[in-house]
Amino acid sequence: MNRTTLSLIAGTAALAAVTAFAAFDSPSASGAAAPQAAARLPVERTSLLCPAPSMSDIADTAYTSFTPVTKGTGSDGKAQLQAAGGQSADGTDSSRKSKGGKGADKKADEPVLTPKAPGTPATGETSGAEAPALIGTADGRFAPGWTVQETTEVAAGTGRGLLGVNCTGADTEFWFPGASTATGRTDYVHLTNPDDSAAVVDIELYGKDGAIKSPLGENLTVKPHASEPILLSTLTDERQADLTVHVSVRSGRVGAAVQALDDKVGGDWLAAAADPAGSQILPGIPKDATDVRLIAFAPGDDDADLKIRLASPDGLITPAGNESLHVKSGMSTAVDLGDVTRGEAGSLVLTPTDQTVPVVAALQVVRGKGDRKETAFIPATAAVGTRATSADNSAKGTTLALTAPTGTATVKVTASAGSEGGTPVTKTYTIKSGTTQNVDVPAPAGLKGTYALTVEPVSGAPVYGSRTLAATEGGVPAFTVQTLPNDHGMVSVPRTEQDLSVLQK
What we know:
Oligomer: single chain
Shape: globular
């Protein structure tokens, strides 16, 4: 997802594209003080977009909303999630249909849930194929670091298993290495427009031989406050196992995510990968993964040569037989790494062997064997930064993986109060240089319901992380993985201090 450093002049519109707005008070103009460093202040408004969760009639979806406690916020504010207009997941008009909740018949324009005060998660549920995409807004004390997790259980059929995705802010560019139009795969790009005017979007596909001509992917219109699921196989007749999808917005902005469904190995959401860069980190491969597949793409004019290393609990190691990867410009390149973790926690570290060439990357991860396999995706991600937040955790089935590829780091992890009761708990961990650690996740004392995890680096090198949710269903090891980039709860606001009296002379 495109994350660009923005000037204060462009703050109102641009910060909305990275999910936040910030306001500041002008300092006194008396005296000719020298400019000071930018202040770090809590954001004052945040927007999040959740894709339509499933097209299965037997799908059950839980939404979990959480805002971490942030110093410097006021006492006012509110947050809500409401159904997007336009088309629901099954192609019907969601504004005219009731949205099924467990034991309730809610209108489409009613909030799915009402967030609780910062520090306490709130939950809501929907079921069936008609659950629409959601558009969420939060302001005041609810805005800084607001996080919403969408978790869906599908008991049978294409894409069965556990599907999870973090609701994200709107943007203008997205990369999805790891999509597919192969036989047995049903992949949709979900586009959601939160604004009052239509968005115009292009979807470009890149396979093993380069760009795939797809006129049907050009000039796609997403109506205001609406969501559109685009089936990739309708954009091309080519059947390719490994595709990189590039979503670019000509006008407006959208939220985007790929839902990848497989007839045999279940399905999950593929979130957007980190921006193209010479080095990429893909954290938190489950230690019992039976098959790991790396998909990489170089969007520029040059080929990329990458060194592949695994950050294990004991340090950086080079997988035997997969020491490096050559990625041709404009072509999706994939390599099977097998059970690369060998039963231990691990994260993949990609660095240039010589010349630095920007790439995007993602992992497709499989757990289980035979006809009891389940799949999930781990896109390359940005570092935790100041703080990252993960909602919808349970006493069992949650794994938090942290890695520090370039140096030792100290990290504070806070488990929030439970959605139905419990006392927050905080622990501090040291992640040694070049290692990955599945930390002993703290849980709230007296936990009832679900809880959130907040990760805050204290000192040392950059830290990357992911959270895995796992649940065995009918003998199938269902799971989903969400990475932990910065939650953008704080924003830098330049201080303006200048003696304007000179302008009157």
